[in-house]
Amino acid sequence: MIWNFAQGIITAVQGILGPQTVVAMTQRQNEIDRITSQFEMQNRSLEFQAAMERVRQEHSKEMEAYRQYCEDVRLQKRLDSEREQLARRFQHEEKLEQYRRETHLILSRAQLLTALTLADDKEIRESFPLKTPARVILDAYKSYQENMKQIPLLVVISPPALQFENFSHAAQGFAKVENRLIDEIQEFCKHYSLTNQERPVRYQGADWESKSSHGKSAIDTLHHVLTSVPTVVLESKFDGDLLRVYLAGWDMMQEVPHYEKVLTIPWKEVLYPIARKYAEEWREYRMKLLEKGRSLEDLKRRGGDDELNLLILEEEEEDREFGRGGQPDYQYNVKEDKYIQELAQFLGICHCILVGLMADRYHFSHGDVRPKLPELLPGLLEKVPSESLKEMLVGEIVSSYQNLYQLTGVDRPHLIPYLFLDLALSLSYLPDKSWARKQIEYSLLSWLKLRNLVDSFAEQKAGLLDLLLEAFISALIVADVEYTEKLNGCLAAIGESHHQETIQNAIQGEQNAEYQRQLEAERLRQEEEVERQRQLEEEAERLRQSEYQELERLLAAAQWQKADKETVKMMKTVIAGKHHYHLSYYVVSVEDIDNFPSEDLRIIDHLWVKYSDGRFGFSVQKRIYQSLGGTREYDEKIFGIFCDRVDWYKLVREHTNNWGMRGHDIQYKYNAPAGHLPVLALDVLNGLFLYADEKLSSPLLAALLSRPDL
Fold first, then answer.
1. pLDDT tens digit string along 154-171?
2. pLDDT over threshold 80, residue 693
3. DSSP states of 83-125 as a string?
4. Which residues have a Cβ under 8 Å from the Cβ of 330 and sit 6 or more positions away?
5. Which residues fall within 8 angstroms of residue 361, CB to CB, at 6 or more apart?
6. Residue 369: C-alpha distances to residues 87, 118, 213, 427, 574 (Å)
7. Contact 639, 630 (CB under 8 A)
8. DSSP-based three-state secondary structure for 243
9. What backbone phi and psi angles, to 5 degrees, belong to 329?
10. Distance from the Cα of residue 273 to its chain's centroid
11. Do 356 and 392 touch, CB atoms closer than 8 A?
12. Rounded to whole angstroms, how far apart are CA atoms 330 and 320?
């Protein structure tokens, strides 16, 4: 009827509108639906594209993060590898150097024994240029080789006051120099005393004796006898207006001694500045005397050479004032004893510096002992009378150490950066900071060279320190803290302290990063340890559960009675394994229940709970038992209520007056009361708990249901 009504309405509409109108409306509606569908498709396409773009961006971020992670790991591994290789290289170098030293010492001992056999030869005694006999020195060095860690360096001085037979004019006028020179060196050698275990020096003092030979020929004679004794000879000569200092010596077993002129100093450059100083001091005092009314004749008498030198000084000052400077020699009077003493002091400073240089070179080469002279330099250089002489001496010192470090860098390059900083710190006290600055640059270059980062600095001149520091900061690691602290001290000493904050921030950042790396490494280690422990536990659990596969199969198949008997069997097996005998004739004790392994007990309980959906199992029984107030101590009333709750037996009083339970009362089915299973098979031969005797069965059950690991 409804259908007919609808058909009528449609017919009426078609009659009113006409067929063409209906078709047009239908087409229009279809067009609207099509356009709407297109909009919907476009919107969905845009949404899909936006979603894809988000996914693409997230994927790109993840890929970039992963790429950065891989790059960081690769870089860290490369750095770790380079550090390890560097450490191994240092160890290898140290072993090679130790082997070289030991071999050298063995050969030296053999040669020394040979020299001792020749020491008493008459020709050798007569030509030996020292007052101390050769045998005495050789015997001493034999003792040093046997008893001392470091073999001392022998230091001998040939002073300028010496009167050679063939060259008697060589030191005329300077006879008083020798004693002052000997005393200066003696005082300096306290820093290198013979008892010093690191850098011992045997100073012979005024031991050089006038012989028929001097210079190179005397050195050859000395070397011929003392080849096995490391020796340094300092010889000074006055040649007209020049003071010349020669350095000679050899190391142990060195076949040819070296002999070279190391300093040539116009002695007037030493004494004239001192004469000017005395003249200025006399001028001030002279003015005070004039104010008191002293006569000029009295002043000339009291002034002596200072009065004459004051006239020369004023003449020099006038020439300089009027632009007539440059006269080669103003001929200051420097013949008084005080000038000879000043000259002796300067010559002593030169000798002390050379002794320190050679002692440092020797002990550094043979024992990796840090040079001592750099820390003594400020006190020595402050006594030098003029800046030009300081520059000359500093140039000699720097050149000597650079040569030493260059040679040492081949075998032990890791020491060089620190040594240059030591030298820089000692030179930082000079007014001209460029000397110290250069040593800092050498130190940084050496440091970067160890890390293969110096190619780009080979030709740099201006701004080199800034570039080196930038490269240094970028390569810093936590292990460089000691070097960084020393570097900061040197930078502050030369007025470059503005770099300190940047370096300190860099090392602090590296320390924080290293701390985070250590935390991350510790976290990963702990996670690995946890995972390893988990795997071990899983493996142990798997091995244990493999023994209970049959029980699991029976429970999964809902074969409850067989599962109950299998439970008894497995528990008997565990207990029997602990006692090493068959359990069929053994009465289970409370101690057996207490000592039953937790792992096995939990596996059995877990399987029962799992396949009964939480209805059966020891833990279910324990929960019921303890909810009734049950404890480890047996209580007849609570035990009876518990048995009723789990429907284990009907209370029947037999003639034996014992509580009992018949086998047909056990419900081996899923819908049995909660906690009903397992019952651990009650017969004597197959059972575990003998419930026929409450005195035996009840305490056992109380002990089981009180286990804390259920």
1. 999 888 753 333 333 333
2. no
3. HHHHHHHHHHHHHHHHHHHHHHHHHHHHHHHHHHHHTT-HHHH
4. 272, 312, 315, 316
5. 400, 404
6. 20, 34, 36, 20, 70
7. yes
8. strand
9. -150, 120
10. 51
11. no
12. 12
Determine the longest span between alpha carbons in the chain, in angstroms: 162
HSE (side-chain half, CA atoms, 13 Å) at 8: 5
Coil, helix or strand at residue 223: helix
β-strand partners of 235:
158, 246
pLDDT digit string (tens) for 537-587?
776 666 566 788 888 889 989 999 999 988 988 888 888 775 555 555 556
∠ CA(389), CA(218), CA(356), 5° rounding? 40
Residue 534: pLDDT over 60: yes
The Cα 639–Cα 121 span in angstroms is 115
Buried b (16+ CB within 10 A) or exposed e, 549-587: eebbebbeeeebbebbbbbbebbbebbeeeeeeebeeee
Environment class of 641 (CB within 10 Å of its CB; exposed 0-12, middle 13-18, buried 19+): middle
Q: Give the residue among 366, 379, 376, 426 at the shortest CA–CA distance from 398.
A: 426
Strand partners, 153: 201
Tokens of 410: 């081949």
Provide the angle, in degrees to the nearest 10, between the axes of the packed helices 19-118 and 2-17.
100
Strands of 242-250's sheet in order across: 201-203, 153-158, 231-239, 242-250, 258-266
> Under a CB-based contact definition with an 8 Å cutoff, are residues 448 and 475 in contact?
yes
Q: Give the whole-angstrom CA distance, residue 649 versus residue 69.
A: 68
pLDDT for 636: 82
Q: What are 297's strand-pairing partners? A: none
Amino acid at 164: F
State the pLDDT confidence band at 691, using cuts at 50, 70 and 90: very low
Token digits of residue 520: 């991350």
Token code pair at residue 342: 């000043």
Pull the structure tokens for residue 477.
């690691």
Query: What's the whole-number average pLDDT of the chain?
Result: 78
Select from 116, 167, 171 the least CA-distant residue to 139.
116
Cα–Cα–Cα angle for 390, 391, 397, rounded to 5 degrees:
90
CA–CA distance, 563 with 553 (Å, rounded to integer):
9
Grouping H, G, I as helix, E, B as strand and the rest as coil, residue 348 is helix
Nearest Cα neighbor of 154 from 103, 222, 217 is: 222
100 close to 367: Cβ distance less than 8 angstroms: no
Among the residues of 226-372, which ranges form H helices?
267-291, 296-303, 305-321, 337-367
Q: In this structure, what DSSP letter does residue 244 have?
A: E
Q: The tokens 């040539």 sit on which residue?
A: 264
Give φ, ψ of 150 to 5 degrees: -115, 135
Q: Which residue has the higher pLDDT, 92 or 153?
A: 153
For residue 495, give every residue at least 6 positions away whose Cβ sits within 8 Å of its Cβ, in sequence order, or none: 433
In sequence order, the β-bridge partners of residue 258 are: 249
Rounded Cα distance between 233 and 222, Å, is 10
Query: What is the residue whose two structure tokens read 């300093």?
Result: 263
The predicted structure's pLDDT at residue 587: 65
AA identity, residue 392: M
For residues 26-57, one letter each, b for 16 or more C-beta atoms within 10 angstroms of the residue's C-beta and e for the rest, the string is: eeeeeeeeeeeeeeeeeeeeeeeeeeeeeeee
CA 343 to chain centre: 49
Alpha-carbon distance of 420 to 406, in angstroms, equals: 11
**Where are the alpha helices (H) located in 148-241, listed in sequence order?**
177-188, 215-225
The conformation of residue 32, written as its DSSP 8-state character, comes to: H
Position 533 pLDDT exceeds 50: yes
